[in-house]
């Protein structure tokens, strides 16, 4: 069997973090979380992950700024990690704009956890 896939969740809502961890842990993904973009960058620079779930609206450093910083990391493996945007304001940007900002895909809040799981599996199992 493949090694356990690791997912980093950048989200400032403890409720969403806990629900996401519950759903993804059930599928045997290893989950770590960060409450803001600076914590996401710190964890990503010190550990390896297969995917990032990134809330757009977080304190200190939002998801868009954090994603741009990740895409500019000198380590190409980390700079190219798949990132799924999680947003309550889907209508603010088009799919093409999310891609231009560096996101691999996006999901709208409130999260549909079946869709979240399907999207994660689609990207992580490529």
UniProtKB/TrEMBL annotation:
Gene source species: Algoriphagus sediminis
Family annotation (Pfam families): Response_reg
Record-listed 4-aspartylphosphate modification sites: 55
InterPro entries: CheY-like_superfamily, Sig_transdc_resp-reg_receiver
Swiss-Prot/TrEMBL keywords: Phosphoprotein, Two-component regulatory system
The protein, known as: Response regulator
All residue ranges annotated as the Response regulatory domain in the record: 6-124
């Amino acid at each position: 069997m493949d090694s356990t896939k690791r997912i980093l969740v950048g989200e400032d809502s403890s409720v969403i973090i806990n629900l996401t961890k519950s759903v993804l842990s059930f599928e045997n993904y290893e989950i770590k979380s960060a409450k803001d973009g600076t914590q996401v960058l710190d964890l990503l620079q010190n550990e390896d992950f297969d995917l990032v779930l990134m809330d757009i609206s977080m304190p200190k450093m939002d998801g868009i700024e954090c994603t741009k910083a990740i895409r500019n990391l000198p380590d190409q493996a980390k700079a190219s990690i798949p990132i799924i945007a999680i947003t309550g304001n889907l209508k603010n940007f088009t799919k093409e704009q999310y891609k231009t900002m560096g996101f691999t895909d996006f999901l709208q809040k409130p999260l549909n956890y079946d869709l979240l799981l399907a999207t994660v599996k689609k990207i992580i199992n490529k």
